[in-house]
Amino acid sequence: MDNNHNSNNYPPSPYPYPGAYGYPPPPNQYPPPPNSGPYAYPHYPHYPNSGPPNYPYPNPSAPPPHHPLDYSSHPYQYHAYPGAAAPPPQTAPHQPTLQSFGSFSSHQPSAPHQPSLQSFGSFQHGSFHYLNHQSSGRLQAPDVQSGSDYHHYQDSSSLSDSASNYDRVDNSNPTYPPMYPPIDDQLANMRLSDSHNNNKPSAPASPPAPASSPPKKFHSGPLPITNNISGAATIYGHPNTSFSRWETSSVGHVESSPQPMSPTMATNHNTTPYGGGMQLVQVPSPKSSLKVLLLHGNLDIWVYEAKNLPNMDMFHKTIGDMFNKIPGNMSNKIEGQINRKITSDPYVSIMITGATLGRTYVINNDENPVWMQNFIVPVAHQDSEVHFVVKDNDVVGSQHIGTVSIPAEHIYGGGKVQGFFPILNASGKPCKAGAVLSLSIQYNPIEKLSIYHHGIGAGPDYTGVPGTYFPLRKGGTVTLYQDAHVPDGYLPNLKLDNGTQYMHGKCWRDIFDAIRHARRLIYITGWSVWHKVRLVRDDNSLSEYTLGELLKSKSQEGVRVLLLVWDDPTSRSILGYKTDGVMATHDEETRRYFKHSSVQVLLCPRVAGKRHSWVKQREVGVIYTHHQKTVIVDADAGNNRRRIIAFVGGLDVCDGRYDTPQHPIFRSLQTVHSDDYHNPTYTGNVDGCPREPWHDLHSKIDGPAAYDILTNFEERWMKAAKPHGIKKLKMSYDDSLLRIERMPDILGLSDAPCVSEDDPEAFHVQVFRSIDSNSVKGFPKDPKDAPKRNLVCGKNVLIDMSIHTAYIKAIRSAQHFIYIENQYFVGSSYNWNQYKDIGANNLIPMEIALKIAEKIRVHERFAAYIVIPMWPEGNPAGAATQRILFWQHKTMQMMYETIHKALVEVGLEDAYSPQDFLNFYCLGNREALNAGDLSESNSPANTPQGLSRKNRRFMIYVHSKGMIVDDEYVIIGSANINQRSMEGTRDTEIAMGAYQPHHTWARKQASPMGQIYGYRMSLWAEHLGVLEDCFTRPESLECVRRVRSMGEANWNQFASNEVSEMRGHLLKYPVEVDRNGKVKPLPGSETFPDVGGNIVGSFLAIQENLTI
Fold this sequence. Notes:
Elements: H1 181-186, E1 192-194, E2 253-255, E3 271-274, E4 278-281, E5 293-307, H2 314-324, H3 328-335, E6 346-352, E7 355-359, E8 370-383, E9 385-393, E10 398-407, H4 408-411, E11 416-422, E12 436-445, E13 473-482, H5 507-516, E14 521-526, H6 547-556, E15 560-566, E16 572-574, E17 577-579, H7 587-593, E18 600-604, H8 614-623, E19 630-638, E20 641-649, E21 694-695, E22 697-702, H9 705-720, E23 763-772, E24 792-793, E25 798-801, H10 802-813, E26 817-822, H11 844-857, E27 863-867, H12 879-905, E28 918-926, H13 944-951, E29 953-955, E30 957-958, E31 961-965, E32 969-973, H14 979-982, E33 989-995, H15 1001-1004, H16 1011-1024, H17 1037-1055, E34 1066-1068, E35 1071-1073, E36 1079-1081, H18 1104-1107
Parallel strand pairs: 14-15, 15-18, 21-30, 26-27, 27-28
Antiparallel strand pairs: 1-4, 2-11, 3-4, 5-8, 5-12, 6-7, 6-9, 9-10, 11-12, 13-22, 13-23, 14-19, 16-17, 19-20, 20-22, 23-25, 23-33, 24-25, 26-31, 28-29, 28-34, 31-32, 32-33, 35-36
Helix pairs in contact: 10-11, 11-12
Region (Disordered): 1-122, 138-224
Keywords: Calcium, Hydrolase, Lipid degradation, Lipid metabolism, Metal-binding, Repeat
Domain C2: 279-421
């Protein structure tokens, strides 16, 4: 499975991949941009030490040639930032401890550990000496003078002792980890033997192990009852195979080449007969503690079947027993009206650290269920056991039947564990005599999964993100947008490879033109769609057109116009009584506007399925939303044919979204935002208050992948338009969707125009979703068929959670840097230092932290830049907002602690701080008073409105949902990095992932400089107001520290009592991160300026599923 892409070659020469992680250093790792030339940095008096930026960091020992960037003349005003403090005098280098590269011990404890640098991917040097830092490649310590104030936000506290307790790993051939003697003595808890009964088919026995091999021991341990009334557990399994009959090997068997184990686990305890000729040994559960190990990679799990489960529906059983006592004829008549077999409805949840990794489907009324389900599960968890929790599905929630627990030690070496295991209840006793679960589990560590080691698009045979609903589509074009509009000449001209120039897109103008030129269809999905919004505001001939007028005009021309909008349950229009709704989405207002036109508006509530519990149905309907944002139209394909193009990203076509890279807060209130004021932070009078600036990411897809966006709309529309209740009596079914396969002038997917793969501007694109079978029509009805469509089984639902899959694949494949902009950043709660069980179990934060830790251990540079809002939209002191900020703080803390531990392991904690690898930023703006502006000095001084008017500042709201990896891969969509967006059963989301095969590290063996590179550089120009040469090497220590110093300077300007004009908007997120990775409030900035609210949040009572 993970070896499909080992030989991906481009002619004329193959790509060398000697190591597991990095690439061989090319002769010139950072070639200059084509046609580059010097850029003159203007002088701006409001920044001290302005002028050409200097770089006070240690120079690399063998620096690449300096190639200043060429940014052509433009009216965008750049400015220089104050340089960082000069480096301390050089001293003798610190010598690292090479024995601490690994994570966990996989060798025998008695054997002396010999450090072998060959076992760490591309780090293939026989010895290691500290040199000055290089811009990429090996991570080396700069010369640091003891006691110097070299890093920002330092803390003098001592290093955490716990960091040195990390277990070590040797990346040689996998062997089974040693078990502690007490575990050896106590874990021999069962014996499974074959009595050669041939009456029933049984699994073929595996070859016997050598007589000298010690017996491997397993146990099925108790797990506290995990009844979940709402059924809101998280699922991260990826089933990919389903067999019609069971073909497996031994019973209670471990497959491991270094240590082959016997299929029979012999003990001398009394045995209990088991069906099918097997005998099960009943022994007490072990009392000794197990070793906690980090499992980072994939688990390959099969859940085959269970036998002899107890009947948990005792109420129905009691009624059945009563019928047996009724006289014969009457008993037969009554029994004929009920199901004779009323018993447990079992399913199995796979859990680790309290997070649900996967779940089988429910089998009704069966005490001997057969699932035969396979899960390929990404894991980044630390725990001692993997739990298989057997539950009985009930009308309200579920009942705990029992648990099978597999120690992490038994799978850590890579061998397969499989067999029948006794199902134990919460007290550690068998839930029923003979109750067993048949399963297999195998752990594949990340370093053994070659699919993650060569970046994105490594060769022409790269097939995209595996295990997804939609495949990779080749030969398209993609336009990348920042903000709703970018005026001509506002951002710098960026030179790309092949002599091309990056073009800054105008998102809403392109959407306007696409709608205006549509001839057959216009399909729009949105969290909010407002008919009054004006898409074009800088062209007087078009500025008066509203979206509603434009759509009505097109529908009158015969174009099919369909709007699929989330139905806010708090907005209503009943008998003339109207409520706007808590979220002010204008859904009812938009529906009324189009009511008597040929534009069809379908308000789509977020509903749970009928088979969900009543509590789950209420939760889904009230808390969760339809969050997708797409515009799909037909466009000219030449020769009187039409093709499909689609816009997808984070921008809804509604109020408050129109903005430019300048992000004005006061100056546009009387012009482009005169009828579009939006700022939900304030309550009451907002006269003279700043608007909330809006930063977002969006994209346009032209090519085969646009048809997948269309398929998503069709599947959702057919589900939402399906008649319910009395509407079922209608003779005809909703036929609003056009059948494009019946329209010869519209090209279908197979005929969609494709860009030649030889075209260097071609994109390969893949569409991802977070959605379940309650929101789409077309998923298989039988859950056994879910693996064929790469869907995940929930308890009563099928789930497409490919957005989460795509993020994990991209992060694991990253080799140099990650740049994220997202509205939220909460996750991996299972690894927090407290509140581990709140359910924010998406892997993204933990995967980023482990990626950085992995690079630190192999002495390679890596950097992550994460841009989030200053606070979630709304009142920053409100209960819900404070809880989100609290979870965000916990997420940051977990990541920085993980990085600090990795630095301690390799002895680099004195040379580097965690912020040399990971930094969080937000955006803000401040406008000085111009001549003629009215002073607001008479405003009330102690209210958020008054303080904001006085200080003339406000955050820029980051609504983006995107990630750029290594300048070669981009993900843009509607999904936030939180549980709501990633789980698939909460908010419905859509995203696209794209790369240019001619602009990848694997292709160039150097930094790509295609459209994705241009997009990131354009975003950084917007945020920082300047472009510097080091920005072409985002992973370099020089770039990380330079951007951080700029962000700190911008925050100081934003938080200052003195009002001044800001041209750079990127602010260092206002928390202090010390050298031990502890995240604390920034001294002097514990609350948000003007509006209040604790920056690190607070633990206030609020509905958990609303805030994660």
